[in-house]
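Researcher: Re-running this chain for the archive, since the previous output was lost when a drive failed. Same request as before.
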Amino acid sequence: MASTRIDRRQRMADQTRREILEAARRLFAEHGYVATSVNDIAEEAGVAVQTIYARLGSKRGMLVGLIDLIDEEAGVGDLAAEVMSAPTPADTLRAEVRLTRAFQERCGDIIGALFAAAAAEPDLASAVAEGQRRHREGARLTVDRVAELGGLRDDVTPDRAVALIALSTTHEAWRELVDAHGLSWDDAEEWLEEALARALLNDPPDFRQSR
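Model: Regenerated structure tokens:
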């Protein structure tokens, strides 16, 4: 019985933590990180300020939790599994582009808000750097899978392949394609898949036949 009570308390604590992070996500996207106070987040989440400090430690602690929440919202775990289990090099690249699209399409608002404030906030810069590290690591895992399947071009080193994928699928790259150049998300995804396949694969598929 005691164990059941502990489990229930833990579930309630986890739910409260999530509600705080979701409130922070909404406010950061709407008003910006700098303009949002812990009091604002507490009011939005319907909790006491002390509860935020108890669950997350600080505004900085919220940033770390927020990165995990963004990954969860974008379905990064499931999509990353698709990258690692893809049967062909082309499917691997396709899964990676799909993952980054989901990340930016679903969470680009908060990502943009965090990037915009990072230059003036050391704590935020650290959190953004962690997000960028995860992005590069995803590109590296993709290249490792492509190489494992024997699909990487002989004249392209793994490090350069990682750099190209990481650069081509950043927040800025997706916003440039969709916002600045007016591509639909589908068109941008298709173009990135084709461009990366032609640049990196020793036997890229015939995209004309797949259209």
